[in-house]
Write a structure and sequence with these properties.
About 35% of the residues lie in helices and about 15% in strands. It is α/β, with parallel strands linked by helices. The chain has a seven-stranded mixed beta sheet with strand order 2-8-7-6-5-3-4, with helices on both faces. Strands 9-10-13-12 form a four-stranded antiparallel beta sheet, covered by helices on one side. A two-stranded parallel sheet has the order 1-11. Strand 3, helix 4 and strand 4 form a beta-alpha-beta unit. Helix 2 crosses helix 7 and helix 8 packs parallel to helix 11. The radius of gyration is 21 Å and the shape is globular. The model has no long low-confidence stretch (mean pLDDT about 95).
């Protein structure tokens, strides 16, 4: 099997992760609920992994809050940053439904305004003059941007957009689900929260994700319950992260994340994935039937390439690649509804998304190219 659906979840994981998950499943105990040696060891791992997550991006003052998915993290943020009626929230056309759907629900509840930041359809560059005007007319209360598009692999110039919002005290959220730990985050002084997903670029398992709180802005609590501390108090703690982590943490997945971060720190993943990305684009450009959904300059495309095939729907291409070549790709709309109008992929019923990881090779790409040429 040639696995090219790493934007959904990286596969395989490093062997160290499988070993750590198996050991934790057999030996891990609940954290913060006992004073005995095994419980203390679990708590120590949970806290040390917080520090490792910060060090991956040289962050010094952030607070890491664990959740079980990036979607849960974004819901906690969207319903926690205290948006009010008539506030303006800005998103890019590259955003995932884990941002769009909770924002739409909030719009129904309290009538916020959701504005789409303009990008040029040829260069994919933001229209900074127009954005500046939009911000001046309707001050941003919050801005949500992906670090990397889960459909196109485009690394957004989020730092420049966030910088335009400095004078408006906007709450800026960066969804780094596709790149955290591999693609460095720039200018995080203009970012309030960073969202990460363990099972994607961090090469860990499902069930562990979270967000990093970088500023002192108020975040409402949305989940309430046991924390293992201050038990006689009916109110949630008002400290970070304790006040945002009700319930038993997924210590098994945290142990897997611990192993994956150690592996990340010893491996140059960015270099390998970028080389594969550029190799794929160069190889695929010469196939006449293929429509590449990339900007004029594809220097900022990383790890993910979307295509369409003339006379085929994306689902048909995915089925052929799977049935006849044992190649796994993702097809359709990828939970990102706005991007398909932007890149004009509706004619193909979405895209065929090819997403790479460290364990892929140029031989994998060559076999994919051979299969595509046969269509």
């Amino acid at each position: 099997m040639i696995y090219l659906d790493n934007a959904a979840t990286t596969y395989p994981k490093p062997e160290e992760v499988y070993v750590a998950l198996d050991k934790a499943n057999r030996n891990a105990f609940n954290t913060g609920r006992g004073s005995y040696k095994c419980a203390r060891a679990a708590s120590e791992i949970k806290e040390s992994v917080r520090n490792k997550i910060l060090k991956l991006n040289n962050l010094k003052n952030g607070k890491v809050i664990y959740t079980n998915s990036a979607t849960v993290s974004l819901n906690e943020l969207i319903f926690g940053i205290d948006l009010k009626e008539n506030d303006y929230v800005y998103i890019s056309p590259f955003e995932h439904n884990s941002i769009i759907r909770p924002l739409e629900e909030l719009r129904k509840r309290i009538k916020i305004n959701i504005e789409i930041i303009p990008f040029d359809k040829e260069t994919w560059n933001p229209d900074f003059d127009k954005i500046n005007d939009m911000f001046a007319i309707h001050h941003p209360s919050a801005i949500f941007l992906s670090q990397i598009s889960n459909v196109t692999g485009y690394i957004l110039p989020y730092e420049n957009i966030f910088k335009l919002s400095e004078k408006y005290n906007s709450i800026n959220i960066l969804d780094a689900s596709q790149g955290y730990g591999i693609v460095h985050i720039n200018n995080y002084e203009n970012i309030n929260y960073i969202v990460f997903a363990g099972h994607k670029s961090l090469y860990a398992s499902f069930g562990i994700a979270g967000y990093i709180k970088l500023k002192n802005d108020k975040l409402k609590q949305n989940i309430f319950g046991g924390t293992g501390s201050d038990t006689m108090n009916p109110n949630m703690p008002n400290t970070v992260p304790e006040g945002y982590e009700a319930g038993s943490p997924n210590i098994v997945s945290i142990c897997g994340l611990n192993a994956s971060i150690d592996w990340l720190n010893s491996t140059d993943i960015y270099k390998h994935e970028k080389e594969l990305t550029d190799y794929l684009i160069e190889k695929i450009k010469d196939i006449k039937k293929v429509k590449l959904f990339i900007p004029n300059n594809y220097e900022n495309i990383f790890g993910i390439v979307s295509i369409g095939i003339k006379d085929y729907s994306s689902d048909d291409v995915g089925s052929i690649l799977d049935d006849e070549y044992n190649i796994c790709v993702r097809t359709g709309y990828h939970c990102a509804p706005l991007i398909h109008d932007f890149i004009e992929s509706l004619w193909y019923n979405g895209t065929v998304r090819i997403s790479l990881n460290y364990f892929n090779t140029k031989d994998d790409i060559d076999l994919l190219i051979k299969a595509l040429k046969s269509l």
